[in-house]
Design goal:
Blueprint lengths: L10 E5 L8 H16 L3 E4 L5 H12 L4 E6 H5 L9 E5 L2 H11 L2 E4 L4 H15 L7 E3 L7 H12 L9
Parallel strand pairs: 1-2, 1-5, 2-3, 3-4, 5-6
Helix pairs in contact: 1-2
Length: 168
């Protein structure tokens, strides 16, 4: 989106799979992302918990001296579905509240590999950008070509004028 490159990014929200993934390329990318955030003093905002690749990112960011904020719905926190949050935890009533708090607490967004929930979060942010509710950068970390087919789909939607170029 235009005009976003000049904005200083202090807080990045990462959407990522919480289920364990054994592919070393994804583990390496997750650890590296956490280290890069720490090195650049960019604080991490995420969905809380300590499972899967998000644990790699949040731990690397925390060990690097960064602030880490996990925003987690009460039902997930109480159901112990996510494990422990690495650093600061903010409980919210619902999944929708989680997205709004992530929007409020982040300057940009990165999506790493994930399932339906991860994609849902990514597209909720993109939808709000398309509606001019927020103007914050959204990025896909395309490790091992994971998002290639999704990007092709979005390109086709753009060519058919279903989505504006600025959202892709």
């Amino acid at each position: 989106m235009e005009g976003n490159s000049a904005r200083q990014v202090k807080n990045i929200c990462v959407f990522c799979r919480t289920n364990p993934r054994k592919n070393s390329k994804f583990i390496e990318a997750a650890n590296n992302l956490g280290r890069v955030l720490a090195k650049r003093k960019i604080h991490l905002v995420y969905g809380g918990g300590s499972l899967g690749l998000i644990w790699c990112i949040s731990t690397a960011a925390h060990v690097g001296g960064n602030q880490v904020l996990g925003i987690i719905p009460t039902a997930i926190a109480e159901g112990n579905f996510a494990g422990k949050t690495v650093r600061e935890k903010l409980r919210v009533p619902t999944m929708q509240d989680k997205i709004w708090k992530m929007l409020d607490n982040s300057d940009a967004f990165i999506t790493l590999l994930g399932g339906i929930g991860t994609l849902e979060e990514n597209f909720q942010i993109a939808s709000r950008a398309q509606l001019n509710i927020y103007h914050k950068p959204i990025h896909l970390l395309n490790v091992d070509g994971l998002f290639n087919k999704l990007l092709s789909f979005l390109d086709q939607d753009r060519e058919e004028n279903f989505i504006p170029y600025s959202v892709r």
